[in-house]
Design a protein that fits this description.
10 strands; 373 residues; 8-stranded mixed sheet; two-stranded antiparallel sheet; alpha/beta
């Protein structure tokens, strides 16, 4: 879990920080890819989310008498439900942020504030809507993560988290685009990718037999489905055979997943177009924000972002992953420095702003609207 707490690497002497754009991934969550008989592969007590309350309330602006009651989600798995085997016991929904994930985001906020706030670079002196703009996808856990970041930065009042309507949203799950689907299919049908799947098929056969997904071809399409190890939960065992996924097996999955992420988004001949059309709008938004380098900070996937930044090799993005774009002014010239998990990114340590924007804009297809129709 990378958290911005390593020693801050100072930029060029005599430069002034004038803008920040920060991409922050959510922290710990429950699994999103669940097994057909999920209940069998978790501790009997299941997942407990009673220590994480997602509160909501709504108000009509200008009408103080028309606010809703404060409510919160309360998940339960009833014993009588005929489909209860599809989910673990306990009080957690699939893919939801957990208390550990909220703690992660609060710590990220504290570390961010200690670096860029009054006791650090003094770039920010308060959290306010004029100087700070939060973007989030339509996923609820990104809103919760933003709330944790704000709390860590010392803010406890209302604050807007901006999203685009679903058909326009460039952050996950993202806008629909026909050419993106075709490019992904072409990449996965390539000789290199099919050879990779053949090489890990014995591993997939073994693990899918353990978790009851042997009859589902989608669980053999790549290793990502099997990626799930966090919160100190034991790796799953088959209650009938007693076979368990070992740590060695899990490590082999992570190695396979890293190869797949690097190949899909970086190494295949069609990877560049795949990133351009799938993430082009988000990159255009990044360029737009950097172009307004005097407009204040922005706190706002990751694999596509790192591909566009030229990072090699690409790796599975961890929970809590963070990328910071700093814009500095020195001798009346603006420069960009990119930090990944607090470390300067090779090739983006000190780049003239306009050159950097040109790099990013090169990843935005001019015919994106036409190809995504």
């Amino acid at each position: 879990m990378p958290i911005l707490n390593s020693p801050y690497v100072q930029a060029v002497e005599g430069a002034e920080l004038v803008h920040l754009t920060v991409y922050q991934r959510h922290g710990k969550r429950t699994p999103d890819n669940i097994y057909p008989a999920e209940n069998l592969y978790n501790p009997p007590e299941g997942w407990d989310c009673t220590d994480f309350r997602a509160n909501n309330f709504y108000e009509l602006q200008g009408d103080p008498h028309s606010s809703s009651a404060q409510i919160y989600h309360n998940f339960e798995v009833p014993d009588w439900h005929p489909l209860r085997s599809r989910i673990w016991n306990g009080t957690c929904n699939k893919g939801q942020l957990t208390a550990g994930g909220l703690h992660d985001s609060i710590q990220h906020g504290k570390n961010f504030w200690s670096t860029y706030g009054p006791e650090g670079l003094n770039f920010l002196t308060s959290v306010n809507e004029k100087d700070v703009y939060f973007r989030g996808s339509t996923e609820e856990r990104t809103f919760q993560t933003a709330g944790g970041l704000l709390a860590g930065m010392g803010h406890d009042g209302p604050f807007p988290i901006t999203s685009y309507p679903s058909p326009l949203e460039p952050l996950a799950p993202g806008y629909s685009c026909t050419i993106v689907n075709k490019l992904r299919s072409d990449i996965e049908a390539s000789d290199n990718f099919t050879s990779h799947l053949e090489s890990i098929n014995p591993l997939l056969e073994k693990l899918n037999a353990i978790v009851g997904t042997s009859g589902d071809s989608s669980w053999f399409s790549w290793a990502d489905h099997l990626y799930r190890q966090c919160h100190g939960h034991p790796l799953p065992c088959n209650v009938t055979t007693g076979d368990c996924i070992s740590q060695e097996d899990a490590n082999a999955v992570y190695e396979a997943g890293t190869w797949e992420y690097n190949y899909i988004w970086g190494s295949d001949a069609k990877s560049r177009d795949y990133v351009r059309y799938a993430f082009g709008v988000a990159l255009a938004e990044l360029a737009q924000g950097l172009r307004k380098a005097d407009s204040g900070p922005k706190l706002s996937y990751y694999i596509r972002l790192m591909a566009a930044l030229g990072k090699t090799p690409l790796r599975w993005p961890s929970l809590g992953h963070q990328v910071v774009f700093e814009v500095w002014c020195k001798a009346d010239q603006l420069y960009v420095r990119v930090l990944e998990s607090a470390e300067p990114l090779q090739g983006a340590e000190w780049v003239p702003l306009q050159e950097f924007i040109t790099r990013i804009r090169a990843w935005v297809p001019e015919d994106l609207a036409e190809k995504c129709s």
